Prior knowledge:
Layout: E1 10-16, E2 21-29, E3 34-42, H1 46-49, E4 54-58, E5 63-66, E6 71-75, E7 85-91
Antiparallel strand pairs: 1-2, 1-4, 2-3, 3-7, 4-5, 6-7
Amino acid sequence: MQQPIVGPSLQGRLINQNRELLAFGECDLHSGGEITMRVAEEHVSAPHRAQGDLSLLLDDGRALAISNRFVRLQLRGGSERMPANTIYRLHTLRN
């Protein structure tokens, strides 16, 4: 069950431990440490480079530690009104 959204949507950049950009897009933060990222741009090798420590850099200045176990959904669009897009379901790491 998806948790409620906490606060406004933010732009975020998902990077790996080598500071390589994997993807960026609009993010909704949910209670319980879940994040939905609507990917605006994804690097082709992103799923293969998503090993080790991941971080989500948000445009409000926060940097969140992200689990490298995330779900990548490829949604197919059928028209100009509904183009294909990618969504990531991310989870923050808790210390």
